[in-house]
Design goal:
Blueprint (H helix, E strand, L loop, with lengths): L2 H4 L11 H27 L3 H33 L10 H59 L22
Length: 171
């Protein structure tokens, strides 16, 4: 029995063989694909600015709706609880105050949303770069295996088109 088989595929000095390293890399790639792959590729379809703008559109819309609800509740409180006469309200000033409030809320949520979306985009890009780096390592390992075994390069990229229905008498 060879020395390598006795040591469960490890070399004498205890280091893992190159095939074990390839398996670890392929496992990391599969885990990435399962957890983040689809979302990161979808996010990567956008430039950074477009991604942030797209994410902030929903933030702005929700901020406007929330600010309008708060303004409505404030005016309802003024009229019902404090018994303010509707005819004595300065609607021009109230409208201006409401507009400034809505704009301030929109700006605040836009800033917060921009920071969060930029961080998410950066993390997504980092994960994609690490994924591509692992793919390159795996590809270089496969290339070196091909050179060592002198196999044909096209063998690994051919599709398996064989099927049980290949024996048609009409064709």
């Amino acid at each position: 029995m060879s020395e390598r088989l006795k040591n469960n595929g490890r070399k004498r000095d205890g280091r893992a063989s190159f095939n074990e390293k390839k398996i670890v890399i392929m496992t990391k790639l599969a885990i990435y694909d399962k957890q983040f792959g689809g979302a990161d590729r979808k996010d990567n379809d956008y430039f950074r600015h477009d991604y942030i703008y797209r994410k902030n559109m929903w933030n702005r819309f929700c901020a406007i709706i929330g600010a309008i609800i708060l303004i409505f509740l404030y005016w309802l409180h003024q009229i019902v609880v404090k018994n303010v006469n509707i005819l004595t309200i300065d609607f021009k000033q109230a409208g201006t105050d409401a507009a400034f409030f809505v704009l301030a809320v929109m700006m605040l949520y836009t800033l917060i949303g921009t920071v969060i979306a930029a961080g998410q985009y950066a993390k997504s890009q980092e994960r994609l770069k690490a994924y591509v780096r692992l793919l390159n390592i795996l590809d270089h390992a496969r290339q070196s295996d091909l050179e060592d075994t002198e196999e044909d390069f096209d063998l690994h990229y051919e599709a398996d088109t064989r099927s049980a229905r290949d024996n048609h008498s009409l064709i």
